[in-house]
Amino acid sequence: MLLSPTWTAILYLAAAVCFILALKGLSSPKTARRGNLIGAAGALVAVITVFLSVRLENIPWIIAAIAVGSAIAAPVARRVQMTQMPQLVALFNGVGGGAAALVALLELGHATPDAGDTTGLYDLTSVLNPWVGLAIAFTLLVGAVSFAGSMVTFAKLQELMTTRPVVFPGLPVIMAAVLVAAIAASVVVIFTGAIWIAVVLIVLGVATGVLLVLPVGGADVPIVISLLNAFTGLAVAASGLVLGNVLLVVAGTLVGASGTILTRAMASAMGRSVAGILFGAFRGGSTAGSTVASDRPVRSSSAEDVAVLLGYAQRVIIVPGYGLAVAQGQHTIAELQAALEARGIEVIFAIHPVAGRMPGHMNVLLAEANIPYEALKEMSEVNREFKTADVALVVGANDVVNPAAKTTPGSPIYGMPILEVDAARQVVFLKRSMRPGFAGIENELLFEPQTTLLFGDAKDSLGKVLSAVKAL
Amino acid sequence: MDDGIALLTITVLAVFVGFEVVSKVSSTLHTPLMSGANAIHGIILVGAIIVAGQAGDGWTLALALLAVVLATANLVGGFVVTDRMLEMFRGRRSKPTEPAASAASAASPAPAATDTDAKEAGR
Question: Where in this protein does the record put region Disordered (chain B) (predicted)?
Fold first, then answer.
């Protein structure tokens, strides 16, 4: 006894609405968690619906496979450290892309030999028309690109391989050859539906994914994760067209849209184009930059001096950067905030959109350290507050506070939106060394008279400043 | 090809809904947005179940079951990790940090405020 097509359609519609509500809930931290649970409920409805609406063989096997997948993923998701979130998102994204490519491959095998059976609501697969062929080829290629690209991204973030751009001579030529071959294979799949060509297409997609991500440097990886997320979404939407399943189409398209928006937001927050990030290394290592330390005089001081500056201020703005995440100093900075607030000092956090290792990563790290989200300010709202701040404390950030982005038209970061810490009365940098930031350019702010530097690992320095503040 | 046109219509409308909903997401929540969107595309599980349920021979079944495992990992892992992240986003911290105590104090600020008001008025 199977569900009627009408009920099936209604249940899928309900699931699709749940997914939209899940994304809508994220417009505020207050509603976000409930939204996510609604999304999970939608997914559950969808999975139950497919069991009730399609005549399925092998049901015990399928249930066992679902149990295996859950048993692998849930403990990992529960235990992962928040600093490792980008790797995990890349990994989950990759397996989703791989699943989409496999589904398209099997559906191709299923659709070609015997025509005329219904797999979903819309019977598109009864004849392999070129449009279905196109959707299959798209899913195979993009799913495979997303899978391989995500795995390389995972390896980079997990430091299983170098985080520097990997470039070798002839890379552009190889890339172009692979792409041409992939297009040719797609055309063959669209018009003949040949299975073995489809397998070749997957292999070419894997090669494309690897070649696409290898040349991307560590700090650009957040943008790539976001882009691959969009890719997987589009692959899932295309597989929905193949299977005639409305839910897959809607869910995949939603993800594609969100990935696209995030990718563009991230790229503009770094003052660069998406194409520049992906193909920058092809054009001769624009991301390499200088790593030479400058020997111009700066004013460096002790943790006690920094504690005095902070402890007798009225308003302090903390600018946390990538260095804080690397040093795992988020809990120490939360304690410092609490100690300063206990002295009646107003403390807020200014978060640059690309702080951390993925979009919005710094907010998650600080939330984990129990810092209330009201204290986390976005760049646009915090920039006018630096004027009234007594101290701006920059922890492990450099390029995102470099005034050259506004004042030096020739600079590589010119035009990138920055946090205007130079407007604060005093600026304190906690830095590991005088090495320039990722963009490889000098930060003039370090040499200004209002600037004080404290050298050392972000977490160690914060710990010393914290105990000095408590001793005041 | 009425069905095809219906699917195309839905796709195009979904693009607009997606852009509309996602552009309102606060940048504070961009990481949960990515992992939440990530979880949503795990719904490819539905497709994987369909192909596994129609698999005739051993090879096809093996590949389809692999797709089911991967898609489930994506779906379940994505929602679990997003929930864990969002749980950490709390408002102004209330004095005790235990979740139970903070829930209790969140429920009680109104009477506490009237108490102090009463005291102030009495003074």
Answer: 92-123
Give the other-Cβ count within 10 Å of A47's Cβ.
19
C-beta neighbour count of A88 within 10 angstroms:
23
Tell me the domain boundaries of chain A. 1-79, 87-283, 303-471
Catalytic residue check, A399: yes
Q: Which residue has the tokens 């005549």?
A: A55
Other CB atoms within 10 Å distance of the CB of residue A331 = 16
Q: Which CATH class is domain A303-471?
A: alpha beta
Task: Give the helix ranges, DSSP H, for A158-245.
Answer: 171-192, 195-213, 221-243
CB contact under 8 A, B39 and A43: yes
DSSP class of residue A212 equals H
Task: Give the tens place of pLDDT for each residue, A296-325.
Answer: 788 888 999 999 999 999 999 999 987 888
Distance in angstroms (rounded) separating the CA atoms of residues A128 and A421: 60
pLDDT score for A112: 54
> Mean of the pLDDT values across residues A418-432?
92
Chosen for mutation from A108, A258, A368, A400 (greatest number of chain B CBs closer than 10 Å) is A258
Under 8 Å CB-to-CB from B47, ≥6 apart: which residues?
A99, A100, A103, A107, A236, A239, A240, A243, A245, A248, B67, B71
d(CA A370, CA A365): 9
Chain A nearest CA to B116, separation (Å): 22
Longest CA span, chain A = 81
